[in-house]
Design goal:
The structure is a homodimer. Chain A is of the alpha/beta class. The first copy, chain A, has ten helices and 14 strands. Chain A folds into two domains: 241 residues, Type I PLP-dependent aspartate aminotransferase-like (Major domain) (Aspartate Aminotransferase, domain 2); 102 residues, Aspartate Aminotransferase, domain 1. Helix content of chain A is 35%, strand content 17%. In chain A, the strands form four sheets. In chain A, strands 2-10-9-8-5-3-4 form a seven-stranded mixed beta sheet, with helices on both faces. Chain A has a three-stranded antiparallel beta sheet with strand order 11-12-14, covered by helices on one side. In chain A, helix 3 packs parallel to helix 4 and helix 8 packs parallel to helix 10. The radius of gyration of chain A is 21 Å and the shape is globular. At the A-B interface, helix 1, helix 3, helix 4 and helix 7 of A face helix 1, helix 3, helix 4 and helix 7 of B.
Amino acid sequence: MTTHNFNAGPSVLPSEVLLRIQSELLNYHGTGISILESSHRSKEYELINQRVIERLKRVLSLPDTYKIGLLQGGASHQFAMLPLNTLTTSNCGAYVLTGVWAEKAYEEASRIGAAHVAASSKVHRYNQLPAISEWQIPANAAYVHITSNNTIYGTQWPELPRTEHALVVDMSSDIASRRISYANAKMIYAGAQKNLGPAGVTVVAIAEDFYQQMHDEAPQILRYSTHINNQSLFNTPPTFSVYVLDLVLEWIETQGIDTIAQNNLLKSSAIYSTIDASGGFYRGHSTHEARSHMNITFRIADESLEPLFLQEAQHHNMIGLAGHRSVGGLRASLYNALPYASAKALADLMREFQRKHG
Amino acid sequence: MTTHNFNAGPSVLPSEVLLRIQSELLNYHGTGISILESSHRSKEYELINQRVIERLKRVLSLPDTYKIGLLQGGASHQFAMLPLNTLTTSNCGAYVLTGVWAEKAYEEASRIGAAHVAASSKVHRYNQLPAISEWQIPANAAYVHITSNNTIYGTQWPELPRTEHALVVDMSSDIASRRISYANAKMIYAGAQKNLGPAGVTVVAIAEDFYQQMHDEAPQILRYSTHINNQSLFNTPPTFSVYVLDLVLEWIETQGIDTIAQNNLLKSSAIYSTIDASGGFYRGHSTHEARSHMNITFRIADESLEPLFLQEAQHHNMIGLAGHRSVGGLRASLYNALPYASAKALADLMREFQRKHG
């Protein structure tokens, strides 16, 4: 029986990718050794490394001038690296707060330099996104930081906001999930463990002009230039995670980003339409305008039914549906690799559950 | 035909571990999903995480009071984290230079605070270790840093030096390779990709009193306390690498550290005895006293024969025998998981090669 994996990350991977990993685990491409045992200086690994960099540019439709880094430490590490590479005594970082991760990015920057809250929807329990017209960005801001998709509150920017300042985007939870314009993004970063692969590798893409403005005050290992000047081979990279990232990117390219996006829309529609048709039995956290197609956070109006719902979901082999520890309730993460059938199965269960308990 | 994997890291893994990974890759312990898809908040992963922490204490014979961290970024990241967590305006870090990695650790510390060279064997092309009696450690040193095994120059401390100062040891390339006393080590760290598992996870162990002396001036993600106070689950860990680390530690425990150590000695003896019996045809880089049992770096007296040797080695399915880019020559890395048969095969080839070309 299929397991429906709604984990918020690390999360579901394409079954084709898992089968491929398994089939070549003991002998990678005739080398006689596992890719786990391969040197990062080997021809095989250097090919993977280079291919991932090229695939990322293609999948994200990034201009060739963008600098790509394959780093470690997750988005939380980027919360520190970004200000460490850009803030000085005379500028600041501006942050748009739309949830827990944006708050954490802001707080980390505050420990490193001057950080400024440009806007926040906290007063609305982060169920919406601050209108761009109301952002207040200091003239000396080196960048404006946003989180493109908010896993805990289930909101997502419909497109990347246009601003005169350099936009830096934490895309950990919706990278490569749709075709959007990066024209205004000077830097994006994402932990791979949601839409791109396994935990352990973080993707960074930096526009040439923004990269040139960075300074070299940080410790060597924390400078973007250290990694980018060495094609992300300055020190031993997380080779297996990068290998899986390559396979997932290949899977995305084979389908095409538009097919991926369409599927994601079908999946989220299956759940949202069930919520909307429930007459208040289910309540989505986000306003309609800000709804995320990656993470749907919702409650049952009678919250005391939620443990029972999770129990029934488990009986149907659905995992990962409990809301984040910090907010409770229910959450369905519908990342790229989640099949439509899983979203459909959840929508069916939701209707059946309402029929029995509504 | 067996491939003999002499890679310096990432490197050979136990075949039992690879088979186990392959067999449970699609369905981890009946969960219906791959461990690659498992949340780091799942029961399954939390068990792995906790087990690794306990296994590390047992395998390394560390007192239970040591704080264990499972981090990312490799040893190079520790080069920055150590001074970021310990240096102030009134102390310094003292470094014993025994090779490229020690130099890098020292240079990174210099960018962060005051760093002092306590001793160096650079003048001897790092073919030996500075006598402990000659170390010059400033009175205000917060620690003395050494590299226990030097992969590029093939030297290794026979045991951890005794000093009145807090000893911090980069054990990336010989951790868990033998039974040694950690009594004097206040902190050890190691990238896993040589003796402990795959790339992508870094092991840190800190004595309670040294840990208590650390400060909280660094960005949150770069503080040891952030990770240790959260059982290394502050942010998404490199879950698959930690999973493999668990399997390798289990493999070590099953054999016992003394069996591992004995095997390592047999392997290195097979090569060193061949070098010593070659009448100068092969020349080891290290002095006898400082010889590493993990990485044997050597040259053929007639260096022009080295490309031919590497070619013949390749015909015998031996990989990873070229010396580090920075020094050239030949290097055989004999980490825990390398079978004795591989070392024996190399020794045989060396004798055969000398017979033909000597």
